[in-house]
Specification:
Blueprint lengths: L4 H18 L4 H10 L2 E6 L6 H14 L7 E6 L7 H15 L7 E5 H10 L8 E5 L16 E4 L5 H12 L3 E6 L4 H14 L8 E6 L3 H10 L5 E5 L13 H11 L4 E3 L11 E5 L1 H16 L10 E6 H6 L12 E3 L5 H4 L1 H66 L16 E2 L5 E2 L1 H8 L10 H7 L1 H12 L1
Parallel strand pairs: 1-2, 1-3, 3-4, 4-5, 6-7, 6-8, 8-9, 11-12
Antiparallel strand pairs: 10-11, 13-14
Helix pairs in contact: 3-10, 8-9, 15-16
């Protein structure tokens, strides 16, 4: 019983520890955690259904962890340009005020021009919240903010120049077809920034032809007829087929890429998989991640750090289609849809086989060593056995010799022991049965000696004097 006491103590300690770990947090701790949560309203100028939105939310979640309940993030979408911006501005503020009545937002964020303009024009909307304007390059910076203490502008700088440099490095084109639209202000600014990047002396010799505001089918037919040599296309987004049917930029470029005779490049990572080649592209997921970090910095009263959301991303299928797989890509490049090599494809099997091989090798070494030790022991045992056999044989021979000699001695000598009852007169001896025997008979029975009768010289002289005298004369002669 005493031996079980330490085990019981250990078990009790473990149970108490688990109970402490599983014990719900006290109300004060929960209240503190809840008070540290941010309530953020994010108003997007675009549609919820664009492919970039899922990537954008994924990036935001990486930094804000709203899916885990660390912060509260609410999304609203103005769906521009599909819906009329003036009509949206007329009804959207009241809708938001009514929908979120009772919620005190820490931050209200406007994404792109339409959402930012909505917040600028409705200063009483969520007046206590810190406003964040995320709208790309703007004129004036913080000088245009009504209250810099309660407003922050985050500028995401375009870098079409580096994106074009990567296209030139990969293709060395002599002509670029630029596909896009100028139907809204944002699209016009996008085309202007792209043109400014092309005006760089590094690209000034490249011929440029713009396919702007054309129906999708007309653009597709143009791309089909383009001579493939030294020509590429650059896609700057279209939101419809040009005939009144709204489409996502992804669907438009997917259709164009399927019919194009030349590779199509773009500036947005969210279009990867549609048939565009890729390059130095803007990652919406990275924008979301860095914006989330910026929101946290604003909530703590810290300066917002600058960031670049661009990175090298390529589509393996497009590289293969346009015979660019042999092109040297940047070391940090991400290549999507690339089939894994043998090592990657069978990594688990290779690792498992390697582990098994190592284990078997170690076991084999142990077995070889054990067999070697066993063989050595068997050899030594065999030598000992042979030596012992020789020693036993020698000892046996010695014993046989000694036994033979002893047996011979026993055969020669039979010893009489004890006190013999001898008659003083007749010299008879009493045997074990009590009978008296002649001494000759007794010795003959109880020993190996034989009695030979003769006459000593004295008895001969006494009993046979004449014979004694005759022998005496013979001895003298």
């Amino acid at each position: 019983m005493p031996s079980k006491f330490p085990s019981l103590c250990l078990l009790t300690a473990i149970l108490l520890l688990l109970q402490g770990l599983c014990k719900p947090a006290p109300p004060q701790a929960l209240a503190l955690e809840a008070s540290n949560k941010l309530d953020i309203l994010f108003i997007s100028s675009f549609s919820k259904n664009i492919p970039a939105q899922a990537e954008f939310e994924s990036g935001l979640d990486r930094s804000l962890e709203f899916s885990k309940g660390r912060n509260n993030l609410y999304f609203e979408f103005m769906d521009i340009p599909r819906l009329n911006e003036k009509n949206i501005n007329a009804i959207f503020p009241g809708f938001l005020q009514k929908k979120y009545e009772g919620i005190e937002f820490d931050l209200v964020v406007g994404w792109a021009d339409a959402a930012c303009n909505l917040l600028h024009e409705n200063t009483s909307l969520f007046a206590n919240a810190h406003r964040v304007y995320v709208e790309g390059p703007t004129e004036g910076g913080d000088n245009g903010l009504a209250d810099p203490g309660k407003e922050t502008e985050i500028v995401i700088q375009d870098d079409y120049r580096k994106s074009l440099q990567e296209v030139v490095r990969l293709e060395s084109p002599k002509k670029i077809f630029v596909i896009g639209t100028t139907r809204d202000k944002v699209a016009q600014e996008r085309i202007t920034r792209f043109q400014n990047s092309l005006a760089d002396t590094e690209h000034s010799l490249i011929q440029v032809e713009y396919l702007l505001d054309q129906p999708m089918e007309q653009v597709a037919e143009t791309l089909e007829r383009i001579p493939a040599k030294d020509t590429v296309a650059f896609y700057l987004l279209m939101f419809s087929d040009g005939k009144g049917v709204n489409m996502t930029p992804y669907d438009v470029v997917q259709h164009l890429a399927s019919r194009s005779a030349v590779p199509i490049y773009s500036y947005w990572e969210s279009l990867m998989g549609s048939g565009v080649v890729g390059g130095y592209v803007l990652s919406v997921e990275m924008i979301g991640y860095h914006l989330g970090k910026s929101f946290l910095s604003i909530s703590r009263g810290e300066e917002v750090a600058e960031f670049s959301p661009l990175r090298h991303v390529y589509d393996w299928n497009a590289l293969l289609r346009w015979e660019l797989t042999g092109t040297e890509l940047p070391a940090e490049a991400i290549v999507l849809n690339r089939p894994p090599d043998i090592l990657q494809h069978y990594l688990w099997q290779i690792v498992s086989t390697g582990v098994v091989f190592i284990v078997l090798s170690i076991l084999s070494l142990f077995l070889i060593r054990a067999l070697k030790l066993r063989n050595t022991a068997v050899h030594e045992l065999d030598l000992e056995r042979k030596n012992l056999k020789k020693m036993v044989a020698a000892r046996t021979e010695e014993l046989v010799t000694a036994n033979t000699e002893l047996q011979y001695t026993l055969d020669e000598v039979k010893t009489l022991r004890g006190i013999l009852p001898l008659c003083s007169f007749c010299k008879k001896i009493r045997n074990d049965q009590g009978d008296w025997e002649e001494i000759e008979t007794y010795i003959n029975i109880h020993s190996e000696a034989d009695i030979s009768h003769s006459v000593c010289p004295e008895c001969l002289k006494k009993h046979y004097p004449e014979v004694h005298q005759a022998r005496a004369r013979d001895w003298k002669e």
